[in-house]
């Protein structure tokens, strides 16, 4: 690998690790047992464990949990392509196809289009049986918030 390409890959990996750290430091994640993994640009995976604290009165995960998981996965897939600014969700559409019970859930996010001001991402939730339980599509806009100034975002 040429030195320029190696340096670029190293910088990209450092950005991915810093985003994973940012996710782990977000106060909202104190309510969710979860971990973010970014293995490649435009791809994010979040592993969650749902329990009864996340349930509605009918005994399954409340829609807020679906939104959280889908939005985060699509968001981080898109922000993996932006190394200077924090993105903001401007719209998100959900399709809930089956109830989620207690146990592990994987949110798989991917970038779809856009790189300048607005990015589009999508995500899906996979339950413990390997079945898709929901999917969503969101738009994310570059903010004026510098990633480097956020607590938890630390590039090694």
Automatic annotation (TrEMBL):
Stretches assigned to the Thioesterase domain: 58-133
Organism of derivation: Sphingomonas abaci
Single GO term (MF): acyl-CoA hydrolase activity
Keywords annotated in UniProt: Hydrolase
Protein name: Uncharacterized protein (TIGR00369 family)
CDD domains: PaaI_thioesterase (cd03443)
Gene3D superfamilies: Hotdog Thioesterase
SUPFAM superfamilies (alphabetical): Thioesterase/thiol ester dehydrase-isomerase
Matches recorded under InterPro entries: HotDog_dom_sf, PAAI_dom, Thioestr_dom
Pfam families: 4HBT
